[in-house]
Amino acid sequence: MSLPVLFIARSELDQLIRTLADDGYQVVGPTIDQEAIVYGDIASAEDLPVGWTDIQEPGKYRLERRNDEACFGYVVGPHSWKKYLFPPVTLVASADRTKTGWQMSTPEAEPPRYAFLGVRACELAAMKIQDKVFLGGPFVDPTYQRRRSAAFIIAVNCTQAAATCFCTSMNTGPRCNAGFDLALTEIADGFLMEIGSEAGQALAARLTTAPATSEQLDRGTSARQQAVDQITKQMDTTGIRDLLMNNLRHPQWEDVANRCLSCTNCTMVCPTCFCSSVNEVPDLTGDHIDRERSWDSCFNIDFSYMNGSPTRNSIQSRYRQWMTHKLATWQDQFGSSGCVGCGRCITWCPVGIDLTQEVAAIRSSPSISPATEQVAGKSLEETES
Amino acid sequence: MKPAATAHPHNPWLAHSVRITRTAPATPGVFTCDLTFDDAAVRKEYSYRPGQFNMLYLPGLGEIAISISGDPDLRDVVSHTIREAGNVTNALAQLPTDSSIGMRGPFGSHWPVEDCVGRDVVLVAGGIGLAPLRPVVCHLLTHRDAFKDVTLIVGSREPSGLLYSAEYEDWRAGGIDVQVTVDRADSLWHGKIGMVTNVLDRIPLRDAKHTILMTCGPEVMMWYTVQMALGRGLSAESLYVSLERNMNCAIGLCGHCQFGPEFLCKDGPIFCYDQVASILKIDDL
Question: Is residue B249 part of a domain?
Answer without folding.
Answer: no
